[in-house]
Specification:
Strand content: under 5%
Strand order of the largest sheet: 1-2
Number of domains: 1
Distance between the termini: 52 Å
Helix content: 55-70%
Shape: globular
Number of strands: 2
Radius of gyration: 19 Å
Number of helices: 5
Largest sheet: 2 strands, antiparallel
Order of helices and strands: HHEEHHH
């Protein structure tokens, strides 16, 4: 029986790698079909990675609890705002996550949705991988305009 910590780490790594691979794969197909090949892929990965980074970084921010006005009971309530409510977390399992649960490290013991690492943290980490691939294309492979 694997520990819950090991299963969480395995699910996190598989999710981040899967999402990053999907973004890079779809970006590669689009950039070679519609654009200028590697140069278009580099820019596309940068833009998509930057957007993923924004959503993920807003989602991982702690929820602010401020005293509510007019209640008088000393209770605090979460302050809602548009940015504070931007999150990818939910109790629903998406199709990709169901498929990840069937992969070898997780196949034997299914990790419940509530025990998994937050989807916001996984999106943030996947964005860093996508941005790293974009950087690798420019700095490592010399793809530039």
């Amino acid at each position: 029986m694997a520990s819950n910590r090991w299963l969480r780490a395995a699910e996190f790594v598989l999710w981040v790698a899967s999402v990053a691979a999907i973004v890079v794969g779809v970006g590669a197909v689009l950039s070679f079909a519609l654009g200028d090949g590697l140069l278009t892929l580099k820019y596309l990965l940068f833009v998509v990675g930057f957007l993923m980074f924004g959503v993920g970084s807003v989602g991982i921010q702690p929820r602010v609890r401020r005293p509510s006005m007019g209640r008088g009971d000393g209770e605090s309530s979460p302050r809602s705002s548009i940015l504070g409510s931007l999150s990818t977390d939910s109790d629903t399992e998406y199709g990709l996550e169901e498929r990840i649960q069937r992969l070898p490290p997780l196949r034997d013991e299914r990790l419940p949705v509530a025990d998994r690492v937050s989807r916001d943290w996984k999106l943030f980490a996947a964005s860093l991988v996508v941005l790293a691939v974009s950087l690798l294309l420019e700095a490592g492979l010399g793809v530039s305009a």
